[in-house]
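step 3/5: co-fold with arginine
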Amino acid sequence: VTESAAAASSTEMTQNADTIGSVRQQLANLMRESLRATVPELDGEEPIVSACNNPKHGDYQCNNAMGIFSKIKGKSTSFKNPNAIGQAIARNLPESTMVEKTSIAGPGFVNIVLKTDWIEEKIYRMLVDGVRTWAPVLPVKKAVVDFSSPNIAKEMHVGHLRSTIIGDCLAKMLEFCHVEVLRRNHVGDWGTQFGMLIEYLFDQIPNWEDIGDQAIGDLQAFYKAAKVKFDADADFRTRGQQAVVLLQGGDERYRAAWKKICDISRREFDQVYKRLQVTLEEKGESFYNPFIPDVVEQLRGKNLIVESEGAQVIQVDGYEIPLIVIKRDGAFNYATTDLTAFWYRVNVEKAELIVYVTDVGQAQHFDMVFKALKLAGWLPSEDQIPKSKHVGFGLVLGADGKRFRTRSSEVVRLVDLLDEAKTRSKDELISRGKDKEWSEEEVEAAAEALGYGAVKYADLKNNRLTNYTFDFDQMLDIRGNTAVYLLYAHARICSILRNSKKDIEELKKVNSIQLAHPSERVLGLHLVRFAEVVEESVTNLLPNTLCEYLYSLAGLFTDFYTNCKVIDSDEETSRLLLCEATAVVMRECFKLLGITPLYRL
Ligand code: ARG
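step 4/5: write C-alpha coordinates
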Protein backbone atom coordinates (compact mmCIF):
# COMPACT_ATOMS: atom_id res chain seq x y z
CA VAL A 1 0.00 0.00 0.00
CA THR A 2 1.38 3.36 -0.90
CA GLU A 3 1.33 6.00 1.77
CA SER A 4 -0.81 8.41 -0.18
CA ALA A 5 -3.43 5.73 -0.72
CA ALA A 6 -3.58 5.02 2.98
CA ALA A 7 -3.91 8.71 3.70
CA ALA A 8 -6.70 9.08 1.17
CA SER A 9 -8.71 6.36 2.87
CA SER A 10 -8.83 8.29 6.11
CA THR A 11 -9.75 11.62 4.55
CA GLU A 12 -13.22 12.41 5.67
CA MET A 13 -15.67 13.35 2.97
CA THR A 14 -16.58 16.84 3.85
CA GLN A 15 -18.57 18.86 1.40
CA ASN A 16 -20.81 21.82 1.46
CA ALA A 17 -24.25 20.56 2.49
CA ASP A 18 -26.02 22.17 -0.45
CA THR A 19 -23.80 20.52 -3.02
CA ILE A 20 -24.33 16.99 -1.73
CA GLY A 21 -26.55 14.99 -4.02
CA SER A 22 -27.48 12.23 -1.65
CA VAL A 23 -30.24 13.19 0.78
CA ARG A 24 -29.16 10.35 3.02
CA GLN A 25 -25.59 11.70 3.16
CA GLN A 26 -26.91 15.17 3.84
CA LEU A 27 -29.06 13.96 6.73
CA ALA A 28 -26.18 11.85 8.01
CA ASN A 29 -24.03 14.97 8.17
CA LEU A 30 -26.67 16.71 10.30
CA MET A 31 -26.97 13.62 12.46
CA ARG A 32 -23.21 13.46 12.92
CA GLU A 33 -23.37 16.85 14.58
CA SER A 34 -26.25 15.78 16.77
CA LEU A 35 -24.46 12.60 17.83
CA ARG A 36 -21.37 14.61 18.73
CA ALA A 37 -23.49 16.77 21.00
CA THR A 38 -25.54 13.88 22.40
CA VAL A 39 -22.72 11.51 23.27
CA PRO A 40 -19.47 13.49 23.16
CA GLU A 41 -17.74 10.62 24.94
CA LEU A 42 -18.24 8.43 21.85
CA ASP A 43 -15.89 10.31 19.60
CA GLY A 44 -17.07 10.25 16.00
CA GLU A 45 -20.02 7.89 16.24
CA GLU A 46 -21.06 7.21 12.61
CA PRO A 47 -24.70 8.06 11.94
CA ILE A 48 -26.92 5.26 10.65
CA VAL A 49 -29.52 6.92 8.46
CA SER A 50 -31.85 5.15 6.08
CA ALA A 51 -35.14 5.65 4.31
CA CYS A 52 -38.13 4.80 6.53
CA ASN A 53 -39.39 1.27 6.08
CA ASN A 54 -42.87 2.49 6.74
CA PRO A 55 -43.64 5.80 5.05
CA LYS A 56 -46.33 6.47 7.67
CA HIS A 57 -43.57 7.02 10.24
CA GLY A 58 -41.64 9.51 8.18
CA ASP A 59 -39.28 9.85 5.24
CA TYR A 60 -36.01 8.84 6.89
CA GLN A 61 -34.90 7.39 10.16
CA CYS A 62 -31.81 7.43 12.33
CA ASN A 63 -31.07 4.09 13.99
CA ASN A 64 -28.18 4.89 16.31
CA ALA A 65 -29.88 4.95 19.71
CA MET A 66 -29.81 1.24 20.54
CA GLY A 67 -26.19 0.81 19.55
CA ILE A 68 -25.16 3.85 21.53
CA PHE A 69 -27.08 2.64 24.56
CA SER A 70 -25.25 -0.68 24.60
CA LYS A 71 -21.93 1.15 24.32
CA ILE A 72 -22.50 3.57 27.21
CA LYS A 73 -24.62 1.35 29.43
CA GLY A 74 -23.15 1.32 32.92
CA LYS A 75 -20.61 3.99 32.01
CA SER A 76 -22.95 6.92 31.80
CA THR A 77 -25.97 7.73 33.90
CA SER A 78 -27.43 10.41 31.70
CA PHE A 79 -29.70 8.09 29.64
CA LYS A 80 -31.82 5.40 31.19
CA ASN A 81 -32.87 3.72 27.96
CA PRO A 82 -32.44 3.88 24.17
CA ASN A 83 -35.62 5.89 23.84
CA ALA A 84 -34.10 8.66 25.94
CA ILE A 85 -31.09 8.69 23.62
CA GLY A 86 -33.39 8.95 20.62
CA GLN A 87 -35.10 11.94 22.26
CA ALA A 88 -31.76 13.61 22.79
CA ILE A 89 -30.59 12.91 19.25
CA ALA A 90 -33.74 14.56 17.91
CA ARG A 91 -33.33 17.53 20.28
CA ASN A 92 -29.70 18.05 19.30
CA LEU A 93 -30.36 17.93 15.59
CA PRO A 94 -29.15 21.30 14.23
CA GLU A 95 -31.69 23.67 12.71
CA SER A 96 -31.87 23.08 8.98
CA THR A 97 -33.88 23.90 5.93
CA MET A 98 -34.43 20.23 5.16
CA VAL A 99 -36.05 18.77 8.28
CA GLU A 100 -39.71 19.48 8.98
CA LYS A 101 -40.14 17.41 12.13
CA THR A 102 -38.89 14.40 14.03
CA SER A 103 -40.58 11.81 16.20
CA ILE A 104 -39.24 8.99 18.34
CA ALA A 105 -40.46 5.43 18.00
CA GLY A 106 -39.88 2.40 20.21
CA PRO A 107 -36.29 1.91 21.28
CA GLY A 108 -35.09 5.27 20.08
CA PHE A 109 -35.61 5.30 16.32
CA VAL A 110 -35.65 8.91 15.22
CA ASN A 111 -38.13 9.36 12.40
CA ILE A 112 -37.58 12.33 10.18
CA VAL A 113 -40.03 14.11 7.92
CA LEU A 114 -38.46 16.31 5.26
CA LYS A 115 -39.77 19.76 4.47
CA THR A 116 -41.81 19.55 1.30
CA ASP A 117 -40.56 22.90 0.03
CA TRP A 118 -37.00 21.62 0.45
CA ILE A 119 -37.81 18.62 -1.77
CA GLU A 120 -39.44 20.93 -4.30
CA GLU A 121 -36.40 23.19 -4.38
CA LYS A 122 -34.03 20.23 -4.74
CA ILE A 123 -35.95 18.91 -7.75
CA TYR A 124 -36.07 22.32 -9.30
CA ARG A 125 -32.31 22.82 -8.90
CA MET A 126 -31.74 19.43 -10.50
CA LEU A 127 -33.81 20.46 -13.50
CA VAL A 128 -31.81 23.64 -13.89
CA ASP A 129 -28.32 22.40 -12.97
CA GLY A 130 -28.52 18.85 -14.29
CA VAL A 131 -28.86 15.49 -12.59
CA ARG A 132 -25.07 15.06 -12.47
CA THR A 133 -25.05 17.57 -9.61
CA TRP A 134 -26.76 14.87 -7.54
CA ALA A 135 -23.82 12.50 -7.83
CA PRO A 136 -22.99 10.97 -4.45
CA VAL A 137 -19.50 11.17 -3.02
CA LEU A 138 -17.59 7.89 -2.88
CA PRO A 139 -14.48 7.16 -0.82
CA VAL A 140 -12.46 6.23 -3.91
CA LYS A 141 -11.31 8.33 -6.84
CA LYS A 142 -9.92 5.73 -9.23
CA ALA A 143 -11.13 2.22 -9.92
CA VAL A 144 -10.39 -0.72 -12.16
CA VAL A 145 -13.41 -2.66 -13.32
CA ASP A 146 -12.17 -5.98 -14.67
CA PHE A 147 -15.04 -7.37 -16.70
CA SER A 148 -16.15 -9.27 -19.79
CA SER A 149 -12.70 -10.90 -20.15
CA PRO A 150 -13.41 -13.77 -22.54
CA ASN A 151 -10.74 -16.24 -23.58
CA ILE A 152 -9.10 -16.03 -26.98
CA ALA A 153 -10.05 -18.80 -29.38
CA LYS A 154 -12.51 -20.21 -26.91
CA GLU A 155 -16.19 -19.58 -26.81
CA MET A 156 -17.46 -16.22 -25.53
CA HIS A 157 -20.43 -17.53 -23.61
CA VAL A 158 -23.44 -16.19 -21.75
CA GLY A 159 -21.31 -15.92 -18.62
CA HIS A 160 -19.15 -13.39 -20.43
CA LEU A 161 -22.32 -11.63 -21.55
CA ARG A 162 -23.40 -11.30 -17.93
CA SER A 163 -19.97 -10.05 -16.97
CA THR A 164 -20.08 -7.50 -19.79
CA ILE A 165 -23.52 -6.20 -18.83
CA ILE A 166 -22.94 -6.09 -15.07
CA GLY A 167 -19.42 -4.72 -15.37
CA ASP A 168 -20.48 -1.96 -17.74
CA CYS A 169 -23.28 -0.93 -15.38
CA LEU A 170 -20.93 -0.81 -12.38
CA ALA A 171 -18.41 1.18 -14.39
CA LYS A 172 -21.13 3.62 -15.42
CA MET A 173 -22.33 4.11 -11.86
CA LEU A 174 -18.79 4.71 -10.64
CA GLU A 175 -18.25 7.18 -13.48
CA PHE A 176 -21.47 8.97 -12.52
CA CYS A 177 -19.99 9.36 -9.02
CA HIS A 178 -16.93 11.08 -10.54
CA VAL A 179 -14.69 8.06 -10.10
CA GLU A 180 -12.09 7.59 -12.82
CA VAL A 181 -12.70 4.11 -14.17
CA LEU A 182 -10.26 1.88 -16.04
CA ARG A 183 -12.48 -0.52 -17.95
CA ARG A 184 -10.30 -3.57 -18.25
CA ASN A 185 -10.82 -6.49 -20.55
CA HIS A 186 -8.62 -9.13 -18.93
CA VAL A 187 -8.81 -11.47 -21.89
CA GLY A 188 -7.34 -14.93 -21.63
CA ASP A 189 -4.73 -14.46 -24.33
CA TRP A 190 -1.95 -16.49 -22.77
CA GLY A 191 -1.54 -20.03 -21.69
CA THR A 192 -0.69 -23.45 -22.95
CA GLN A 193 -3.57 -23.69 -25.43
CA PHE A 194 -1.70 -21.32 -27.76
CA GLY A 195 1.10 -23.77 -28.44
CA MET A 196 -1.39 -26.26 -29.79
CA LEU A 197 -3.31 -23.62 -31.73
CA ILE A 198 -0.23 -22.24 -33.41
CA GLU A 199 1.08 -25.66 -34.44
CA TYR A 200 -2.34 -26.53 -35.81
CA LEU A 201 -2.36 -23.29 -37.76
CA PHE A 202 1.04 -24.10 -39.25
CA ASP A 203 -0.19 -27.58 -40.21
CA GLN A 204 -3.54 -26.63 -41.64
CA ILE A 205 -2.79 -23.33 -43.29
CA PRO A 206 0.86 -23.22 -44.31
CA ASN A 207 0.37 -19.87 -46.04
CA TRP A 208 -1.39 -18.38 -42.98
CA GLU A 209 0.73 -15.24 -43.18
CA ASP A 210 -0.50 -14.25 -46.62
CA ILE A 211 -4.20 -14.96 -46.44
CA GLY A 212 -6.87 -13.05 -44.64
CA ASP A 213 -8.47 -13.94 -41.34
CA GLN A 214 -11.30 -15.76 -43.05
CA ALA A 215 -8.90 -18.64 -43.65
CA ILE A 216 -9.35 -19.95 -40.16
CA GLY A 217 -13.09 -19.57 -40.39
CA ASP A 218 -14.79 -20.30 -37.11
CA LEU A 219 -12.13 -20.00 -34.45
CA GLN A 220 -14.07 -22.11 -31.98
CA ALA A 221 -14.28 -24.99 -34.43
CA PHE A 222 -10.60 -24.50 -35.12
CA TYR A 223 -9.88 -24.74 -31.40
CA LYS A 224 -11.94 -27.91 -31.08
CA ALA A 225 -10.17 -29.57 -34.01
CA ALA A 226 -6.78 -28.63 -32.62
CA LYS A 227 -7.76 -30.06 -29.27
CA VAL A 228 -8.84 -33.34 -30.81
CA LYS A 229 -5.49 -33.67 -32.51
CA PHE A 230 -3.66 -32.65 -29.34
CA ASP A 231 -5.37 -35.37 -27.34
CA ALA A 232 -4.91 -38.07 -29.95
CA ASP A 233 -1.49 -37.43 -31.42
CA ALA A 234 1.50 -37.64 -29.05
CA ASP A 235 3.83 -36.14 -31.62
CA PHE A 236 1.60 -33.14 -32.10
CA ARG A 237 1.29 -32.77 -28.35
CA THR A 238 5.06 -32.53 -27.94
CA ARG A 239 5.23 -29.92 -30.70
CA GLY A 240 2.45 -27.98 -29.02
CA GLN A 241 4.31 -27.95 -25.75
CA GLN A 242 7.52 -26.82 -27.41
CA ALA A 243 5.58 -24.13 -29.21
CA VAL A 244 4.54 -22.65 -25.87
CA VAL A 245 8.19 -22.35 -24.92
CA LEU A 246 9.04 -20.72 -28.25
CA LEU A 247 6.12 -18.32 -27.96
CA GLN A 248 6.97 -17.31 -24.42
CA GLY A 249 10.61 -16.97 -25.42
CA GLY A 250 9.54 -14.37 -27.97
CA ASP A 251 10.14 -16.28 -31.23
CA GLU A 252 9.00 -13.94 -33.98
CA ARG A 253 7.10 -16.41 -36.11
CA TYR A 254 5.23 -17.80 -33.12
CA ARG A 255 4.49 -14.32 -31.88
CA ALA A 256 3.03 -13.37 -35.25
CA ALA A 257 0.84 -16.47 -35.33
CA TRP A 258 -0.34 -15.78 -31.79
CA LYS A 259 -1.18 -12.21 -32.72
CA LYS A 260 -3.14 -13.37 -35.74
CA ILE A 261 -5.24 -15.73 -33.66
CA CYS A 262 -5.87 -13.02 -31.05
CA ASP A 263 -6.94 -10.55 -33.72
CA ILE A 264 -9.53 -12.91 -35.13
CA SER A 265 -10.99 -13.57 -31.69
CA ARG A 266 -11.00 -9.91 -30.87
CA ARG A 267 -13.03 -9.11 -33.95
CA GLU A 268 -15.66 -11.57 -32.82
CA PHE A 269 -15.77 -10.04 -29.33
CA ASP A 270 -16.10 -6.59 -30.82
CA GLN A 271 -19.29 -7.62 -32.59
CA VAL A 272 -20.84 -8.13 -29.18
CA TYR A 273 -19.42 -4.95 -27.67
CA LYS A 274 -20.61 -2.91 -30.62
CA ARG A 275 -24.18 -4.09 -30.21
CA LEU A 276 -24.16 -3.53 -26.47
CA GLN A 277 -22.35 -0.20 -26.89
CA VAL A 278 -19.84 -1.21 -24.27
CA THR A 279 -16.34 0.17 -24.29
CA LEU A 280 -13.46 -1.77 -22.83
CA GLU A 281 -9.72 -1.41 -22.88
CA GLU A 282 -7.93 -4.65 -23.42
CA LYS A 283 -5.09 -5.53 -21.14
CA GLY A 284 -5.02 -9.26 -21.47
CA GLU A 285 -3.17 -11.79 -19.37
CA SER A 286 -0.14 -11.50 -21.65
CA PHE A 287 0.27 -7.86 -20.71
CA TYR A 288 1.27 -8.74 -17.16
CA ASN A 289 3.78 -11.37 -18.19
CA PRO A 290 6.90 -9.19 -18.03
CA PHE A 291 6.01 -8.16 -14.48
CA ILE A 292 5.50 -11.65 -13.12
CA PRO A 293 9.09 -12.59 -12.21
CA ASP A 294 9.54 -9.46 -10.12
CA VAL A 295 6.24 -9.92 -8.31
CA VAL A 296 7.10 -13.54 -7.58
CA GLU A 297 10.47 -12.41 -6.23
CA GLN A 298 8.77 -9.90 -3.95
CA LEU A 299 6.46 -12.60 -2.61
CA ARG A 300 9.42 -14.89 -2.14
CA GLY A 301 11.16 -12.14 -0.21
CA LYS A 302 8.24 -12.15 2.19
CA ASN A 303 8.72 -15.88 2.71
CA LEU A 304 5.25 -16.60 1.40
CA ILE A 305 6.19 -19.10 -1.29
CA VAL A 306 6.80 -22.69 -0.32
CA GLU A 307 7.42 -25.88 -2.24
CA SER A 308 4.57 -28.39 -2.51
CA GLU A 309 4.61 -31.51 -4.66
CA GLY A 310 7.09 -29.92 -7.02
CA ALA A 311 5.09 -26.73 -7.40
CA GLN A 312 5.68 -23.38 -5.70
CA VAL A 313 2.65 -22.32 -3.73
CA ILE A 314 1.23 -19.91 -1.18
CA GLN A 315 -0.69 -21.42 1.72
CA VAL A 316 -3.78 -19.43 2.62
CA ASP A 317 -6.07 -19.79 5.60
CA GLY A 318 -9.18 -21.87 5.27
CA TYR A 319 -8.11 -23.98 2.30
CA GLU A 320 -6.59 -27.40 2.18
CA ILE A 321 -5.23 -26.80 -1.29
CA PRO A 322 -2.68 -24.02 -1.67
CA LEU A 323 -2.63 -21.24 -4.25
CA ILE A 324 -0.25 -22.42 -6.98
CA VAL A 325 2.08 -19.68 -8.16
CA ILE A 326 4.55 -21.67 -10.23
CA LYS A 327 3.46 -24.99 -11.65
CA ARG A 328 5.56 -28.11 -11.56
CA ASP A 329 6.69 -27.50 -15.13
CA GLY A 330 7.88 -24.02 -14.23
CA ALA A 331 4.99 -22.18 -15.86
CA PHE A 332 3.01 -19.36 -14.30
CA ASN A 333 -0.76 -19.66 -14.17
CA TYR A 334 -4.07 -17.80 -13.84
CA ALA A 335 -3.41 -16.96 -10.19
CA THR A 336 0.11 -15.71 -10.81
CA THR A 337 -1.27 -13.34 -13.42
CA ASP A 338 -3.97 -12.08 -11.04
CA LEU A 339 -1.45 -11.45 -8.25
CA THR A 340 0.68 -9.54 -10.74
CA ALA A 341 -2.24 -7.65 -12.26
CA PHE A 342 -3.24 -6.52 -8.78
CA TRP A 343 0.28 -5.31 -8.10
CA TYR A 344 0.30 -3.44 -11.42
CA ARG A 345 -3.11 -1.88 -10.95
CA VAL A 346 -2.32 -0.58 -7.48
CA ASN A 347 1.29 0.49 -7.96
CA VAL A 348 1.42 1.60 -11.57
CA GLU A 349 -2.17 2.57 -12.28
CA LYS A 350 -2.88 3.79 -8.74
CA ALA A 351 -6.29 2.17 -8.52
CA GLU A 352 -8.01 2.47 -5.16
CA LEU A 353 -10.74 -0.02 -5.93
CA ILE A 354 -10.47 -3.12 -8.08
CA VAL A 355 -13.62 -4.96 -9.03
CA TYR A 356 -13.60 -8.36 -10.75
CA VAL A 357 -16.80 -9.41 -12.47
CA THR A 358 -16.98 -13.16 -13.08
CA ASP A 359 -19.35 -16.03 -12.35
CA VAL A 360 -19.55 -17.19 -8.72
CA GLY A 361 -17.63 -20.29 -9.74
CA GLN A 362 -14.49 -18.20 -9.42
CA ALA A 363 -15.28 -17.00 -5.89
CA GLN A 364 -12.75 -19.36 -4.37
CA HIS A 365 -10.01 -18.31 -6.77
CA PHE A 366 -10.48 -14.66 -5.87
CA ASP A 367 -10.81 -15.38 -2.17
CA MET A 368 -7.50 -17.21 -2.25
CA VAL A 369 -5.82 -14.48 -4.30
CA PHE A 370 -7.12 -11.78 -1.92
CA LYS A 371 -5.91 -13.77 1.08
CA ALA A 372 -2.48 -14.14 -0.49
CA LEU A 373 -2.41 -10.39 -1.17
CA LYS A 374 -3.30 -9.75 2.46
CA LEU A 375 -0.47 -12.00 3.60
CA ALA A 376 1.84 -9.97 1.38
CA GLY A 377 0.58 -6.80 3.03
CA TRP A 378 -0.61 -5.47 -0.32
CA LEU A 379 -4.30 -5.63 0.46
CA PRO A 380 -5.22 -3.88 3.71
CA SER A 381 -8.26 -4.46 5.89
CA GLU A 382 -11.78 -3.81 4.61
CA ASP A 383 -12.20 -0.11 5.31
CA GLN A 384 -8.88 0.91 3.81
CA ILE A 385 -7.61 1.59 0.34
CA PRO A 386 -6.98 -0.20 -1.96
CA LYS A 387 -10.10 -2.31 -1.91
CA SER A 388 -10.54 -5.45 -3.96
CA LYS A 389 -13.93 -7.01 -4.62
CA HIS A 390 -15.10 -10.06 -6.47
CA VAL A 391 -18.48 -9.39 -8.06
CA GLY A 392 -19.86 -12.87 -8.63
CA PHE A 393 -22.97 -13.79 -10.56
CA GLY A 394 -25.13 -16.86 -11.08
CA LEU A 395 -25.80 -18.95 -14.14
CA VAL A 396 -27.96 -18.15 -17.13
CA LEU A 397 -30.59 -20.85 -17.45
CA GLY A 398 -32.73 -21.95 -20.36
CA ALA A 399 -36.49 -22.48 -20.17
CA ASP A 400 -35.79 -26.08 -19.10
CA GLY A 401 -34.04 -24.84 -15.96
CA LYS A 402 -30.71 -26.12 -17.18
CA ARG A 403 -27.65 -24.19 -18.30
CA PHE A 404 -28.58 -22.05 -21.27
CA ARG A 405 -28.06 -23.76 -24.64
CA THR A 406 -29.59 -23.46 -28.07
CA ARG A 407 -31.87 -26.12 -29.48
CA SER A 408 -29.03 -27.96 -31.16
CA SER A 409 -27.34 -28.03 -27.75
CA GLU A 410 -24.43 -26.25 -29.38
CA VAL A 411 -23.03 -23.22 -27.63
CA VAL A 412 -24.98 -20.02 -28.10
CA ARG A 413 -23.32 -17.41 -30.27
CA LEU A 414 -23.84 -14.20 -28.35
CA VAL A 415 -24.18 -12.17 -31.52
CA ASP A 416 -27.06 -14.39 -32.65
CA LEU A 417 -28.72 -14.07 -29.29
CA LEU A 418 -28.57 -10.28 -29.38
CA ASP A 419 -29.71 -10.19 -32.97
CA GLU A 420 -32.73 -12.28 -32.11
CA ALA A 421 -33.73 -9.86 -29.35
CA LYS A 422 -33.53 -7.04 -31.87
CA THR A 423 -35.43 -8.92 -34.58
CA ARG A 424 -38.24 -9.82 -32.23
CA SER A 425 -38.52 -6.19 -31.13
CA LYS A 426 -38.52 -5.03 -34.71
CA ASP A 427 -41.28 -7.49 -35.67
CA GLU A 428 -43.32 -6.20 -32.76
CA LEU A 429 -42.86 -2.58 -33.86
CA ILE A 430 -43.86 -3.48 -37.42
CA SER A 431 -46.93 -5.34 -36.22
CA ARG A 432 -47.92 -2.13 -34.46
CA GLY A 433 -47.54 -0.22 -37.71
CA LYS A 434 -44.48 1.77 -36.70
CA ASP A 435 -42.79 1.10 -40.03
CA LYS A 436 -45.50 3.25 -41.63
CA GLU A 437 -45.05 6.08 -39.11
CA TRP A 438 -41.29 6.15 -38.77
CA SER A 439 -38.26 6.14 -41.01
CA GLU A 440 -36.33 2.92 -41.49
CA GLU A 441 -33.52 4.25 -39.26
CA GLU A 442 -35.94 5.07 -36.48
CA VAL A 443 -37.41 1.59 -36.53
CA GLU A 444 -33.91 0.11 -36.42
CA ALA A 445 -32.84 2.34 -33.55
CA ALA A 446 -35.97 1.60 -31.53
CA ALA A 447 -35.63 -2.14 -32.16
CA GLU A 448 -32.06 -2.03 -30.90
CA ALA A 449 -32.94 -0.01 -27.81
CA LEU A 450 -35.80 -2.38 -26.97
CA GLY A 451 -34.05 -5.64 -27.82
CA TYR A 452 -30.61 -5.02 -26.34
CA GLY A 453 -32.15 -3.06 -23.47
CA ALA A 454 -34.41 -6.01 -22.67
CA VAL A 455 -31.47 -8.42 -22.53
CA LYS A 456 -29.51 -6.09 -20.27
CA TYR A 457 -32.37 -5.30 -17.92
CA ALA A 458 -33.37 -8.97 -17.56
CA ASP A 459 -29.82 -9.63 -16.43
CA LEU A 460 -29.50 -6.65 -14.10
CA LYS A 461 -32.88 -6.65 -12.38
CA ASN A 462 -32.28 -9.70 -10.20
CA ASN A 463 -29.70 -9.95 -7.48
CA ARG A 464 -26.69 -10.97 -9.55
CA LEU A 465 -25.89 -13.96 -7.35
CA THR A 466 -29.09 -15.73 -8.32
CA ASN A 467 -29.34 -17.74 -11.52
CA TYR A 468 -31.63 -16.19 -14.07
CA THR A 469 -33.70 -17.70 -16.80
CA PHE A 470 -33.16 -16.39 -20.28
CA ASP A 471 -36.61 -16.05 -21.79
CA PHE A 472 -37.29 -13.77 -24.76
CA ASP A 473 -41.06 -13.71 -24.23
CA GLN A 474 -40.64 -12.66 -20.64
CA MET A 475 -37.97 -10.02 -21.15
CA LEU A 476 -39.81 -8.46 -24.09
CA ASP A 477 -43.17 -8.35 -22.34
CA ILE A 478 -44.53 -4.82 -22.20
CA ARG A 479 -46.49 -5.59 -19.05
CA GLY A 480 -43.80 -7.03 -16.79
CA ASN A 481 -40.84 -5.58 -14.96
CA THR A 482 -38.94 -5.25 -18.21
CA ALA A 483 -36.93 -2.68 -20.13
CA VAL A 484 -39.74 -2.64 -22.67
CA TYR A 485 -42.28 -1.59 -20.05
CA LEU A 486 -39.90 1.05 -18.70
CA LEU A 487 -39.05 2.43 -22.13
CA TYR A 488 -42.75 2.76 -22.86
CA ALA A 489 -43.29 4.47 -19.51
CA HIS A 490 -40.61 7.00 -20.38
CA ALA A 491 -41.94 7.56 -23.89
CA ARG A 492 -45.38 8.19 -22.42
CA ILE A 493 -44.05 10.97 -20.19
CA CYS A 494 -42.37 12.48 -23.23
CA SER A 495 -45.64 12.37 -25.11
CA ILE A 496 -47.43 14.14 -22.25
CA LEU A 497 -44.81 16.86 -22.43
CA ARG A 498 -45.20 17.10 -26.20
CA ASN A 499 -48.97 17.16 -26.01
CA SER A 500 -48.89 20.06 -23.58
CA LYS A 501 -47.45 22.16 -26.45
CA LYS A 502 -45.40 23.96 -23.83
CA ASP A 503 -41.72 24.75 -24.12
CA ILE A 504 -40.19 23.04 -21.11
CA GLU A 505 -37.07 25.23 -21.21
CA GLU A 506 -39.36 28.24 -20.83
CA LEU A 507 -41.28 26.64 -17.96
CA LYS A 508 -38.00 25.93 -16.20
CA LYS A 509 -37.33 29.64 -15.91
CA VAL A 510 -39.85 29.90 -13.10
CA ASN A 511 -39.35 27.99 -9.88
CA SER A 512 -42.85 26.65 -9.51
CA ILE A 513 -42.73 22.98 -8.52
CA GLN A 514 -45.33 22.23 -5.89
CA LEU A 515 -45.84 18.83 -4.35
CA ALA A 516 -49.31 19.51 -2.97
CA HIS A 517 -51.12 16.28 -3.74
CA PRO A 518 -49.97 13.17 -1.76
CA SER A 519 -49.11 11.37 -5.02
CA GLU A 520 -46.96 14.31 -6.02
CA ARG A 521 -45.08 14.29 -2.75
CA VAL A 522 -44.45 10.54 -2.88
CA LEU A 523 -43.15 10.90 -6.42
CA GLY A 524 -41.04 13.92 -5.49
CA LEU A 525 -39.51 12.15 -2.50
CA HIS A 526 -38.66 9.18 -4.69
CA LEU A 527 -36.99 11.47 -7.21
CA VAL A 528 -34.69 13.10 -4.66
CA ARG A 529 -33.67 9.64 -3.45
CA PHE A 530 -32.01 8.88 -6.77
CA ALA A 531 -28.52 9.81 -5.59
CA GLU A 532 -28.56 7.65 -2.50
CA VAL A 533 -29.90 4.72 -4.48
CA VAL A 534 -26.98 5.01 -6.88
CA GLU A 535 -24.72 5.29 -3.85
CA GLU A 536 -26.19 2.14 -2.34
CA SER A 537 -26.21 0.27 -5.62
CA VAL A 538 -22.58 1.06 -6.41
CA THR A 539 -21.32 0.62 -2.85
CA ASN A 540 -22.81 -2.86 -2.62
CA LEU A 541 -22.00 -3.49 -6.29
CA LEU A 542 -25.61 -4.56 -6.83
CA PRO A 543 -27.20 -3.11 -9.99
CA ASN A 544 -30.59 -4.62 -9.09
CA THR A 545 -30.98 -1.89 -6.46
CA LEU A 546 -31.04 0.69 -9.23
CA CYS A 547 -33.46 -1.43 -11.29
CA GLU A 548 -35.86 -1.65 -8.37
CA TYR A 549 -35.69 2.11 -7.97
CA LEU A 550 -36.44 2.67 -11.65
CA TYR A 551 -39.33 0.24 -11.64
CA SER A 552 -40.88 1.93 -8.58
CA LEU A 553 -40.35 5.31 -10.18
CA ALA A 554 -42.40 4.23 -13.20
CA GLY A 555 -45.13 2.95 -10.88
CA LEU A 556 -45.20 6.12 -8.78
CA PHE A 557 -45.43 8.19 -11.91
CA THR A 558 -48.44 6.18 -13.04
CA ASP A 559 -50.09 6.78 -9.64
CA PHE A 560 -49.41 10.48 -9.93
CA TYR A 561 -50.72 10.65 -13.46
CA THR A 562 -53.82 8.71 -12.51
CA ASN A 563 -54.56 10.97 -9.53
CA CYS A 564 -53.46 14.33 -10.82
CA LYS A 565 -54.62 16.02 -13.97
CA VAL A 566 -51.66 17.55 -15.75
CA ILE A 567 -52.57 19.28 -19.02
CA ASP A 568 -55.01 22.17 -18.68
CA SER A 569 -55.08 21.92 -14.89
CA ASP A 570 -54.41 24.85 -12.54
CA GLU A 571 -51.16 23.17 -11.54
CA GLU A 572 -50.11 22.56 -15.13
CA THR A 573 -46.70 24.24 -14.96
CA SER A 574 -45.68 22.55 -11.74
CA ARG A 575 -46.92 19.20 -12.92
CA LEU A 576 -45.22 19.42 -16.28
CA LEU A 577 -41.97 20.18 -14.49
CA LEU A 578 -42.55 17.13 -12.31
CA CYS A 579 -43.09 15.08 -15.48
CA GLU A 580 -39.87 16.46 -16.90
CA ALA A 581 -37.96 15.72 -13.67
CA THR A 582 -39.25 12.14 -13.72
CA ALA A 583 -38.19 11.74 -17.34
CA VAL A 584 -34.75 13.16 -16.60
CA VAL A 585 -34.18 10.77 -13.69
CA MET A 586 -35.52 7.82 -15.68
CA ARG A 587 -33.12 8.63 -18.49
CA GLU A 588 -30.21 8.78 -16.07
CA CYS A 589 -31.22 5.36 -14.76
CA PHE A 590 -31.35 4.03 -18.33
CA LYS A 591 -27.95 5.50 -19.00
CA LEU A 592 -26.43 3.83 -15.93
CA LEU A 593 -28.03 0.52 -16.91
CA GLY A 594 -26.70 0.85 -20.45
CA ILE A 595 -30.16 1.20 -21.99
CA THR A 596 -30.86 3.73 -24.74
CA PRO A 597 -33.96 5.79 -23.89
CA LEU A 598 -36.73 6.24 -26.45
CA TYR A 599 -38.75 9.42 -26.68
CA ARG A 600 -41.73 8.01 -28.50
CA LEU A 601 -43.07 4.55 -29.05
N1 ARG B 1 -10.90 -15.10 -18.67
C1 ARG B 1 -11.58 -15.48 -17.46
C2 ARG B 1 -12.75 -16.40 -17.80
O1 ARG B 1 -13.22 -16.42 -18.91
C3 ARG B 1 -12.09 -14.29 -16.68
C4 ARG B 1 -11.03 -13.33 -16.21
C5 ARG B 1 -11.49 -12.52 -15.03
N2 ARG B 1 -10.53 -11.57 -14.57
C6 ARG B 1 -9.44 -11.87 -13.86
N3 ARG B 1 -8.64 -10.91 -13.51
N4 ARG B 1 -9.18 -13.09 -13.45
O2 ARG B 1 -13.21 -17.11 -16.93
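step 5/5: annotate
The pocket of arginine is lined by residues 146, 149-151, 186, 188, 338, 341, 356, 358 (CB under 6 Å).
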